[in-house]
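pasting for the record
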Amino acid sequence: MQVDIKTTNIQPIRQTFSHIARRLGADKAASRYQEATLDMQPTTNWHYRPLWEPELHVFDVRRTNIVMADWYAFKDPRHFYYGVYTMARAKQQEGVDKQFEFAEKRNLLGALDEATRESLTQLLIPLRHYEWGSNMNNTYCCAYGYGTAVTQACNFAAMDRLGIAQYLSRIGLLLDGNQAGALDAGKAAWLSHPAWQGVRRVMENLFVTKDWFEVFVAQNLVFDGLLYPLVYRHYVDQVSPRTGNALALLTEFMNDWYAETSRWVDATVKTAAEESPANAERLTEWVRSSRDEVLRALEPLAALALGASGSATLAAVRAEFDTRVGRIGLKP
């Protein structure tokens, strides 16, 4: 008996969904990111207007002063949709968990001298509350933003901030053998230490800023763009040798996350700026005003973290930030 196996090429009737095909063309296959992003937000047939703002729709372009002809012009260079995002973070978390397990097994932070432990408690642990505020701001952008291309990425960023807050909490627990005393001291520093009150004031002002794109720029571009290099690069690099470089190991995720997320933030702001001169002017205004306010807030924190070199370091961070803003296409 002889069996002949033959293959047949079956051409799909269509390459993708009709709403995607209207954008890309019917004969072009779409990526999973495009299918999970483009035109996913409802635009008609809403049940009701928000009772607290009846003059606006649930999804309304008038919630920001930024004007776009197409809100799906924004693209995430990471191509994050839910599936890819969760797989990427799960893989990263496996590596971070191993680092924390190693640090706990070897008691890398439990045997620090009192000055180093106090420094970490006053400088690093209060950032748990900064990350919570960042979560709130990105959640606001997700709730009131327009277009899935922006809102889904803001939601991912919001969840990332809770994850970073948890890593900082784990560092605090390693400092005092899971007694939570470092966490309480970090909260007290956030609420009452003079060096943190400027940062806290800026964060709380963002909580009551209505324009969601202004919140996006102030939080993700300006605030993070100045605070993350100051703390996770300059401060950690200075203190880490006193911890046997355990601190650099345990905060490596924050540096990796910041570099990755900056690509998305820069691409989003650049797309908005290139849409029109009016957008570019408004974005430049927001960047300048929030940059100056954040720099004033960070001055006492830089002095507390780095001592006499704090002012010069903060100036270097500002210069790097202005260069980044120029690459985006805005005037620093």
